[in-house]
């Protein structure tokens, strides 16, 4: 399913739409970290059209799963965001490029004279809404860098690392030892 609407359906009175955007994009573009929990994003939006200019306002929401960056346990998060976008008629963006800076504004693009499509717009916003370092909880204590105990669940008896040893150094030692 895509998020689109035929221009002939739009007038100067807002047209309310409720669409779903198939989450296939997640595996392709964020699949090394995230997996879609729901088959699709829910996208609520409305559009008005005056002459050739279409004004769109919308909101999307969806759940995604991931493995916590600190403790590696599976977790889920909900992303949602609101957006506004303007579409102008075919060819209008290039004509205005030099003078009014349409070209530089990511919130304005051209429609093809037949329909508007929001798929790529929503996918890019969804990618931006996914955190770079997803955590199961802001307070996640992670794994002990020495013994690997999940410190959210239990404690271990390892002594704290000396100041000049970062957790990464300990991890490196562990890897080297493991490969021998
Ligand atoms: Zn965690
Ligand atoms: Zn430990």
Polypeptide structure, described:
There is one protein chain. With 180 residues, the protein is α+β, with helices and mostly antiparallel strands. It folds into 2 domains: 4-129, no CATH class; 141-180, no CATH class. The chain is 21% helix and 34% strand. The strands form 2 sheets. Strands 2, 3, 4, 5, 6 and 7 form a 6-stranded mixed sheet that branches. Strands 1-8 form a two-stranded antiparallel sheet. The structure holds zinc ion (ZN) (2 copies). One zinc ion is lined by residues 144, 146-147, 149, 156, 158. The site of one zinc ion has 7 residues, from loops.
How many H/I helical runs? 5
Mean of all residue-level pLDDT scores? 88
The largest sheet, given as strand count, sense and whether it forms a barrel, is: 6 strands, mixed
Instruction: Give me the Rg, rounded.
Output: 23 Å
